[in-house]
Model the fold of this input.
Amino acid sequence: MKKTFLCIIKIIAFTLAVLAASLVFEIVTALVFNVTDLLTDPGAVSEMYEAGAGVFSKHPNEMMFFGKIAMSSVAIGLYIGFYRKEENGFSRSIKGNTVIFTIVAGVSIQLVISILLGFIIPLLPVSTADDYNEVMNSLSAIDVCSVLSVVVLAPLSEEFLCRGVIQRCAEEAYSKTGAVFVQAVVFGLIHMQLIQSTYAFIIGIVLGYFSMKYRTIWISFFIHMALNAASYFLPYIPDTVGISGININMVFVIYGFTILISVVTVILFKKLPKPDIRTAEEVAGGTV
Done:
């Protein structure tokens, strides 16, 4: 009971530390950019405030970028500080064929989620759907800060926090399966939006399973990165495509492609090398 209580306290502290770092850097970034704007173009800043826009509304992508850098730095620091000394291969590198699997798996998961949301969102209250769409629109901007934040920094910070620090911490008090569940709950909660948190929890289970099975953060990182990257391409898929005078419904093409890529994912998964889950001490001592 005491071990469980201490585990929960540590998980809360780790999570709050990472989120606090992100918040502080976002606030500092907003202030720096607003002061710069005020010095270079006072009139534009005055018009912005007169229109009712706040200090945090003008540079959201830059705020997100520096916030994610802070999250990544703190999460990696916590992992190195608390769990790197107990290294048993949890952050071992992965080979080329495994990277291919992670990319295909990430795209497959994104396609499945998009199709399911297409059926589910129309059934939800309008306010819930609007809130979700607003969050997604804020993340879909095509600029350097936004793309790097969503595709690289978000997976990096969230993997080291959830699959690195929290999953390792939870394994001290729970079974490996229980630890996967705990980190998935945290992964869902930190997304702070009902719809996004719900499917983030499910994704967290999948990513946590791979981290548990292969004892590496990097396999879940690449899946996460491919999943987020795929979200940028889906909005550009047209409803229909005309080929030789025939209009092809792209919805059915996407369904078919999703099934195909899911099958390929399963095939690639079966071909992955079996993980060596021995500890560093066991490897050094020749234990099997």
